[in-house]
Design goal:
homodimer; alpha/beta
Chain lengths: ~180, ~180
């Protein structure tokens, strides 16, 4: 069981990444304060061929030393845009046929286990601030809310971990459909 | 779609957590340098009712200000032990009937998508150092290696994100069996 060397992994080059088919998922970051969290989400989005990241409001954006440190350069591969208002990003994506889903603990939210996208559905997934979560006014204009079931004492997961879990889960469900 | 308040979430108290049935998964951290990563893994482990975390070698351990900050106190709910050598933790868990699985990019590793534990299987999952991954000598004495398929330019995911993805995936597969 020899560990693979970097060259064994056959990863894409930056140029290859730009043109390869992406998974029809857009990530929307609504007021995410920590550059480390943003950088980590870029790194995960690179691995799972996410279409685009929309950085909204106070969310840190490249160029940023801390984002670079945690993204390891993935901020140069994954496409991103900045929006002053999260609502603006949502309206644009809705016009492009995306379903708008907030990842948040909301009355009537659907458990991630029970959520299955339709074949060819395009998903825009909103992740919120480290303390306050997705803003209520943003939740109000979503199509649906998805919740990661949690069974312990704490109220929530770290946002970069949350994004990893949700992107992994929905990436695989879209690939299977 | 009203956001839930903390009291709506009906989380466990610390005392309830100590006695509630856990999922038969133990996390082994092999030379994890960053207190933030360790703290984040405690927080995820609290949410998914992980049995125990084995902190090995140079891995940061409580009490630690940074662990506390990212774990938000989950280092006081999830059981943990310290081992000077990762091999020692593995031998103890193997004697207790655990299957020993390294999460690592290894020749012949099985993709996380394709890995399904047997009903009632007890899993010890090893996550490695931020740069070097799981040590080769630790990989050598595992029962199997599991890899998260990755399709972009970067060689790996952040370790706290990796742990989140793998724990979420296997938690649900064990619950379904």
């Amino acid at each position: 069981m020899r560990k693979k060397e970097n060259e064994d992994l056959e990863r894409l080059t930056v140029d290859d990444f730009k043109v390869v088919d992406k998974i029809p998922i857009v990530v929307i970051l609504d007021q995410v304060r920590s550059s480390n969290n943003v950088g980590s989400i870029f790194r995960t989005s690179d691995a799972l061929l996410i279409t685009k990241i929309c950085l909204c409001g106070i969310t840190a954006r490249p160029p940023d030393k801390e984002i670079h440190k945690t993204a390891l350069g993935a901020e140069n591969t994954v496409a991103w845009e900045y929006y002053l208002n999260t609502e603006e990003a949502i309206l644009q994506l809705r016009n492009q046929g995306y379903s708008i889903l907030a990842i948040e603990q909301v009355e009537g939210s659907i458990s991630l286990n029970d959520y299955f996208p339709h074949p060819n559905q395009k998903l825009a997934l909103i992740f919120g601030n480290e303390v306050k979560g997705v803003q209520q006014e943003v939740v109000n204009i979503c199509d649906q809310t998805i919740e990661i079931p949690q069974f312990g004492t704490k109220h929530s997961l770290n946002i970069a971990v949350t994004a990893g879990i949700v992107l992994w889960d929905l990436f695989n469900k879209l690939k299977r459909t």
